[in-house]
């Protein structure tokens, strides 16, 4: 037999969401990390107005009260670089993930719901996008384009990365399409717009949200890799540039002094990955009313 | 049907035959954040060789939990808290653990699971799964095992060679159900438990499966328990009937008599709420309210009182115990058993059919 | 009034190695569903029942035949013009668990189609809300249900919501495909009697699709019963006539399979043994049922009989070369009578 649990008294939506987020300590930690980095990206550069200070007297200084994370080859404060560099990295990843999720969801929904010709066409397009080798393409594109703005870079990353989402959403849509409630919606003559946005979308939202969060991690990795490899011109302060310089200019492989310079951005990337993974466990419950109310 | 008369004499002589399985005062509790919720409360039931016992109840009545406790296989967070399940030649199953318990499952007790149409491994042929079963029970003579499975298949109207070489997807729902029975019996189990054997089958496959259960039962002299929500299914094959509601066995007795003269208001209402093929369909009456689940179950008093046309003040206070009122017939109700006439006994409650108020 | 004339639906499946395979889901189905009437289709799984329900509600197309709603042939209309007609035929699904969107509450589930209707009728918001409460009351639920999500309701309550949702568009017919088989037994009759009530009180006609003859009999009182086998109707007639005096061996097998409530009922004297499993692929030029029929003769394998009326009763038709009435259905036990 199945064990059913009593449903909690109906709470206002906001406090229900809050309860889901605080139900497990991992989620609180995850959310905390994400919020911390978001704040860092939003307000970090405001803490350090102007260009990053260079102090030739203190090149490769170890961590101290003045420089918490030490300094780099030019004597700049590593903490300051990490904080300032967060904006470009995170904005790029967020734009890329949102673009990929939006395009992928739209393509997947329409393909799965309309089927037939629309499906074939959109899926061939998806296949094409999936076969695009992402990294080499970006390298080629970077010769034409200087990725000054995080927005541009995000869009390019997103444009090459929506294939997987589209596939997953289409599969979900196809299976939901045969469910009774969608047949009923069609039978009642509800508009296609209503069916796509009100009936289908909420049911695939958890998949999309999880995909979105996971792709943030992927996109951070991808862009940092581009800068690390040095194939994209260094146009701004960011973690990828830091890694590149720690390894190729700082000689971290031979001199341990550059270690904090290398580890600081790496730690940030790991931490944000951890935050996203911890938080992801709450996504399903946030979207599913049945799970949401189970206490 | 091969022989449509069930052995009603089985019920008459039942007292003389030793019970193959004796369930005594069994309580199974689901441990949840909301406290311990009893799924089965103080259930006692005997299964005798040569007798088919039908266990009828709705979802949430605890019938499947009761059946699983025969294997001591109640899924977590469920736990058997009191009572015993004595199986002849094995002892109290609720005290067995590990290897001994595993060997008991299958060899003494054959169990055909709910939705067993889907309980075959899709990646292995039926024959391979049969050999796996034999090896895990340390059967020496695997050839003999296959031969016996073949015999059982033939008896069920299956082509043994074809079936043993087939994968799950190559077989129909009714065929898979039969294979479930073959696998349950191939180790010479003397007790056969079928959990919802015909759910998801259409009428024709259902009739065929029931026919097979009846003939296998008779040929092997089994003690059979059929767990179902369908009165029709049990009344077609069972010798004895136990009706469960809210974790309790509320009525128990010889099948024909119990159907003709149901003594518990729930049994009576359930029969009265069945769309039947004879009689005036306009006479059928729906039950008011809805069946309780673990969390809405009354903690005190009779669990059926909210839907009962005969509810009295005493029903609020004390939970009636199952007791023998005429030889061989048991009931758990405070109200006096109704007179013999069924037509007069069917209550006609016609309140709001399905109120939402039943849930807190 | 809904009339179906010779509705045919064939699926062609193409396997990589097996070549083309055709499945005849419906072979020339004919019926008339008058306003407030009832027609039941009974048959085992794989007989084409579900396809029929989908064709009637516009979820599937048909290859041949006519589907007339108040005299208008829907096959001749464009998809856009067809939609309002199909809206008058609403489906009550088998599984109340998947028939409701888990992310929307009952207020939204009923509100969506009501709002859509309001664009045509000009009903105000307040009127829509009132109508939703009215519909819930009609199906035996309290207004408090409006704020609930489907998972907070029992199977029986969900099925009532499904019925209420179908009623939002004022349909003239409900197609119920095994509508109670997934509901707790003590709740089933409640749903069935609700559908009966709707037919009686609102004149909504019912098309009931099932393998359970007893429920078909309960819902289809005074209506017609069609027995469908591999897409072909092989016997039809007034419900009581077909149940009590079936002449086609397949109908007789189907009726024999109904469990007998021992003690209350006695098995019919001519009750037949259960049939072997259906092989959908078996192709035969003759009677479709002949390969499984206990009474088949050489003649049966040769030609496929068409639906013909019994000499005594024009309403009772069958497709059998050797029709013979048999008493297979249970009778009330003497002790009870």
Automatic annotation (TrEMBL), chain B:
Residues 336-349 have a biased composition (Low complexity). It is found in: Cell membrane. Residues 21-271 form the ABC transporter domain. Gene3D superfamilies: P-loop containing nucleotide triphosphate hydrolases. GO terms for cellular component: plasma membrane. It comes from the Bacteria. GO terms for biological process: peptide transport. The keyword DNA-binding does not apply. Its main location: membrane. The keyword ATP-binding applies. Residues 336-360 are annotated as: Disordered. Keywords: ATP-binding, Cell membrane, Membrane, Nucleotide-binding, Transport. Belongs to the ABC transporter superfamily. This is Dipeptide/oligopeptide/nickel ABC transporter ATP-binding protein.
From TrEMBL, chain C:
Pfam families: ABC_tran, oligo_HPY. Keywords: ATP-binding, Nucleotide-binding, Transport. InterPro entries: AAA+_ATPase (IPR003593), ABC_transp_ATP-bind (IPR050319), ABC_transporter-like_ATP-bd (IPR003439), ABC_transporter-like_CS (IPR017871), Oligopep_ABC_C (IPR013563), P-loop_NTPase (IPR027417). The keyword Kinase does not apply. GO terms for molecular function: ATP binding; ATP hydrolysis activity. One of its GO terms (biological process) is peptide transport. Residues 2-255 form the ABC transporter domain. Belongs to the ABC transporter superfamily. PANTHER family: D,D-DIPEPTIDE TRANSPORT ATP-BINDING PROTEIN DDPF-RELATED (PTHR43776:SF7), TRANSPORT ATP-BINDING PROTEIN (PTHR43776). This is ABC transporter ATP-binding protein. It comes from Kitasatospora phosalacinea.
């Amino acid at each position: 037999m199945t064990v059913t649990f009593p449903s909690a008294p109906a709470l206002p939506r906001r406090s229900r969401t809050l309860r889901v987020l605080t139900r497990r300590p991992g989620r609180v930690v995850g959310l905390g990390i994400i919020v911390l980095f978001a704040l860092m990206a939003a307000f970090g550069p405001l803490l350090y107005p102007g260009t990053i200070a260079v102090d030739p007297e203190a090149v490769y200084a170890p961590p101290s009260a003045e420089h918490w994370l030490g300094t780099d080859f030019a004597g700049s404060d590593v903490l300051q670089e990490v904080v300032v560099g967060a904006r470009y990295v995170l904005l790029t990843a967020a734009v890329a993930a949102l673009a990929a999720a939006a395009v992928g969801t739209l393509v997947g929904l329409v393909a799965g719901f309309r089927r037939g010709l629309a499906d074939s066409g959109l899926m061939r397009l998806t296949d094409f996008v999936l076969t695009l080798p992402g990294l080499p393409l970006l390298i080629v594109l970077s010769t034409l384009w200087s990725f000054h703005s995080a927005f541009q870079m995000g869009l390019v990353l997103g444009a090459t990365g929506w294939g997987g989402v589209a596939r997953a959403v289409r599969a979900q849509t196809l299976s939901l399409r045969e469910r009774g409630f969608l047949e009923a919606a069609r039978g009642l003559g509800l508009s296609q717009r209503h069916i796509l946005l009100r009936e289908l979308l909420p049911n695939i939202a958890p998949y999309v949200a999880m995909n979105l969060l996971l792709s943030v991690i992927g996109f951070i990795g991808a862009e940092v890799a581009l800068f690390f490899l040095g194939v994209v011109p260094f146009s701004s302060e960011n973690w990828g540039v830091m890694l590149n310089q720690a390894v190729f200019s700082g000689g971290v492989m031979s001199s341990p002094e550059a270690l904090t310079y290398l580890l600081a951005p790496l730690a940030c990337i790991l931490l944000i990955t951890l935050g996203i993974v911890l938080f992801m466990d709450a996504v399903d419950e946030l979207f599913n009313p049945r799970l949401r109310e189970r206490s | 049907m091969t022989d449509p008369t069930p052995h009603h004499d089985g019920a008459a002589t039942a007292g003389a035959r030793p019970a193959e399985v004796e369930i005594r005062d069994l309580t199974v509790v689901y441990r949840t954040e909301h406290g311990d919720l009893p799924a089965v409360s103080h259930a006692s039931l005997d299964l005798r060789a040569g007798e088919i016992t039908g266990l009828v109840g709705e979802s949430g009545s605890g019938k499947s939990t009761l059946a699983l406790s025969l294997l001591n296989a109640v899924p977590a967070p469920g736990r058997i808290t009191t009572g015993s399940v004595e199986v002849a030649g094995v002892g109290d199953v609720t005290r067995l653990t590990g290897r001994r318990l595993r060997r008991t499952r299958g060899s003494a007790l054959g169990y055909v699971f709910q939705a067993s149409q889907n309980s075959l491994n899709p990646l292995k042929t039926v024959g391979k799964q049969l050999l796996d079963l034999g090896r895990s029970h340390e059967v020496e003579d695997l050839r003999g095992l296959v031969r016996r499975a073949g015999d059982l298949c033939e008896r069920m109207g299956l082509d043994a060679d074809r079936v043993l070489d087939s994968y799950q997807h190559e077989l129909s729902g009714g065929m898979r159900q039969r294979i479930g029975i073959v696998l349950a019996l191939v180790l010479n189990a003397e007790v056969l438990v079928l959990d919802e054997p015909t759910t998801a089958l259409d009428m024709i496959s259902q009739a065929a499966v029931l026919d097979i259960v009846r003939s296998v039962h008779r040929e092997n002299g089994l003690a059979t328990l059929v767990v179902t929500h369908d009165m029709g299914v049990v009344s077609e094959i069972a010798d004895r009937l136990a009706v469960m509601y809210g974790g309790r066995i509320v009525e128990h007795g010889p099948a024909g008599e119990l159907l003709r003269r149901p003594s518990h208001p729930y049994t009576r209402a359930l029969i009265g709420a069945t769309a039947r093929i004879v009689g005036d369909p306009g006479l059928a009456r729906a039950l008011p309210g809805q069946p309780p689940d673990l969390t809405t179950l009354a903690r005190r008093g009779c669990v059926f009182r909210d839907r009962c046309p005969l509810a009295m003040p005493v029903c609020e206070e004390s939970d009636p115990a199952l007791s023998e009122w005429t030889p061989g017939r048991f009931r758990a109700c405070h109200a006096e058993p109704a007179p013999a006439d069924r037509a007069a006994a069917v209550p006609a409650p016609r309140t709001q059919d399905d109120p939402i108020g039943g849930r807190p | 009034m809904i009339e179906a004339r010779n509705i045919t639906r064939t699926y062609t499946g193409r396997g990589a190695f097996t070549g083309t395979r055709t499945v005849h889901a419906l072979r020339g189905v004919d019926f008339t569903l008058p306003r407030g009437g009832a027609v039941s289709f009974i048959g085992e799984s794989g007989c084409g029942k579900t396809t029929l329900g989908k064709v009637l509600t516009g979820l599937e197309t048909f290859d041949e035949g006519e589907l007339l709603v108040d005299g208008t042939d829907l096959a001749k209309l464009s998809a856009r013009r067809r939609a309002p007609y199909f809206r008058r035929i609403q489906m009550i699904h088998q599984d109340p668990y998947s028939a409701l969107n888990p992310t929307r509450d009952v207020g939204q589930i009923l509100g969506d189609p009501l709002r859509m209707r309001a664009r045509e009728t000009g009903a105000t918001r307040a009127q829509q809300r009132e109508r939703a409460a009215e519909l819930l009351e009609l199906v035996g639920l309290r207004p408090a249900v409006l704020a609930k999500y489907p998972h907070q309701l029992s199977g029986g309550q969900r099925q009532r919501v499904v019925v209420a949702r179908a009623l939002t568009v004022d349909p003239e017919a409900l197609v119920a495909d095994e509508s109670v088989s997934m509901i707790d037994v003590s709740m089933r009759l409640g749903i069935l009697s609700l559908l009966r009530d709707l037919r009686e009180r609102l004149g909504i006609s019912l098309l009931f699709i099932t393998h359970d003859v007893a429920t078909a009999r309960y819902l289809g009182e005074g209506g017609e019963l069609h027995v469908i086998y591999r897409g072909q109707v092989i016997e039809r007639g007034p419900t009581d006539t077909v149940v009590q005096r079936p002449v086609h061996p397949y109908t007789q097998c189907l009726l024999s399979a109904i469990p007998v409530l021992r003690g209350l009922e006695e098995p019919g004297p001519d009750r037949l043994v259960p049939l072997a499993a259906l092989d959908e692929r078996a192709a035969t030029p003759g009677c479709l049922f002949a390969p499984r029929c206990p009474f088949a003769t050489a003649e049966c394998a040769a030609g496929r009989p068409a639906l013909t009326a019994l000499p005594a009763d024009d309403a009772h038709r069958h497709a059998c070369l050797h029709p013979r009435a048999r008493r297979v259905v249970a009778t009330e036990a003497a002790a009870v009578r």
